[in-house]
Amino acid sequence: MLYFKEYTQDTSTSQRPTLLILHGLFGSNSNWQGMAKQFARSHKVLAVDLRNHGQSPWYDEHDYPTMAQDVAQLISQQQIGPCRMLGHSMGGKVAMQLALAHQDRVQIER
Fold this sequence. Notes:
Oligomer: single chain
Distance between the termini: 31 Å
């Protein structure tokens, strides 16, 4: 399972939308610490370490469909879907792949 750090302002997060933050290549969840604290004012925030980064497990396979599947599994395991996504660079591509392959786990804003 992917490692993540949760940011919340108080214990009444059940009514708040969930925001998953995905870092870029060679990054980790700690890259987003300052912004995650700000987003936590209005969201339940999970800053995720994608596979082969930070404290998440390392595998030989490292492509966008597989990373999107990892995030989909995290969403299911944490029972937080559908949720909002924010990704930088590689994390943005993972978020896009997740939205295409697992539409039920991503909250689309219109």
